[in-house]
């Protein structure tokens, strides 16, 4: 199922991007070790590489990936930061995922 593979790759990509941004946040805002920048940089490099694995045009991949990123960020909010999403967070995430599905999986002419 190419749709599940695409979605799974987007989820892994989103986790890599969020981690790559969250670790510097911990250093800058919470006084954690500057050494967090090393895994952050590696995570962001992984993020860029993962985005390159999609066969679709880069702009389409970036646009669709954004929808999955929104959903994973809300899950991160809940699982890592301990803040329960509101109903509106969930609705917004669902809309973003619907947008991703339309962009990535809509039929296209040759």
Summary, kept brief:
By secondary structure, this protein is an all-alpha fold.
Q: If helices are DSSP runs of H or I spanning 4 or more residues, what is the number of helices?
A: 4
Low-confidence stretches: none
What's the count of strands?
0
**Rg:** 15 Å
* Largest sheet descriptor: none
Strand and helix order: HHHH
Percent helix: over 70%
The whole-number mean of residue pLDDT values reads 92
Number of domains: 1
Backbone shape: flat
Written overview of the protein:
This protein is an all-alpha fold and 110 residues long. It has one domain (2-105). The protein is 77% helix and 0% strand. It contains 4 helices and no strands. α1 (2-30) packs antiparallel against α2 and α1 (2-30) crosses α3 (58-79). The chain is flat, with a radius of gyration of 15 Å. The model has no long low-confidence stretch (mean pLDDT 92).
């Amino acid at each position: 199922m190419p749709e599940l593979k695409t979605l799974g790759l987007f989820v892994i990509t989103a986790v890599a991007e969020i981690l790559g941004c969250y670790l510097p946040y911990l250093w800058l805002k919470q006084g954690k070790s500057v050494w967090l920048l090393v895994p952050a940089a590696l995570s962001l490099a992984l993020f860029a590489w993962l985005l390159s694995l999609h066969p679709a045009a880069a702009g389409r991949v970036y646009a669709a990936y954004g929808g999955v990123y929104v959903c994973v960020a809300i899950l991160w909010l809940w699982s890592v930061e301990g803040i329960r999403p509101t109903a509106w967070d969930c609705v917004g995430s669902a809309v973003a995922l619907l947008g991703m599905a339309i962009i990535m999986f809509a039929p296209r002419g040759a």
